[in-house]
């Protein structure tokens, strides 16, 4: 099956580049290439794409609106942010809204198509500089709450809290997802099918009131479940 992709980007050069990358990959199908929040929302509702590739700085609003609209219209949609904004506020807001990946335009991978396929396969492509800062933030939060002490002393990782809304299997799956494994790889590690993994992930989303892998990992970290 082909993966349907919508591109939302107001810079003509990048809009053309991203569109051509999608059109050049047989596994992908371009359902639209637009340059505004309004047009993006309309096509998300009409086409229900599998992946939305969006900038954050758009002429009539923020790409955050695109992310939220995509999550509302199609919760299993993946949103890949490609932007020049690398500050903590934009990254955090994007993840909280439901973005699955976050790439900087000035450090864009050689193949946009590969990034789109990666995010749809269960990956979470994040530019190295952004990933480092996100991990540092999680590490700082863990140290402030004392959760980082076992790892620092070499002790086994602490189990999820007794009052965790997640089962042991769900927590195990979320930990593997947080390490960057896609659903097929998680299934291989645990000896279960990718379909079963997806079923567990949907339950995790529901219990944590989130709509994406990135948001689930972020929320679980904040709640001290990982």
Automatic annotation (TrEMBL):
Modification sites for 4-aspartylphosphate: 55
Gene3D superfamilies on file: 3.40.50.2300
CDD domains (UniProt xref): LuxR_C_like (cd06170), REC_NarL-like (cd17535)
Coiled coil: none
Region (Disordered): 145-165
Keywords assigned by UniProt, alphabetized: DNA-binding, Phosphoprotein, Transcription, Transcription regulation
PROSITE patterns per UniProt: HTH_LUXR_2, RESPONSE_REGULATORY
Domain HTH luxR-type residue range list: 159-224
Listed Pfam families: GerE (PF00196), Response_reg (PF00072)
Bias (Low complexity) ranges: 145-162
All residue ranges annotated as the Response regulatory domain in the record: 4-120
Protein name as it appears in the record: Response regulator transcription factor
Source organism per UniProt: Ramlibacter aquaticus
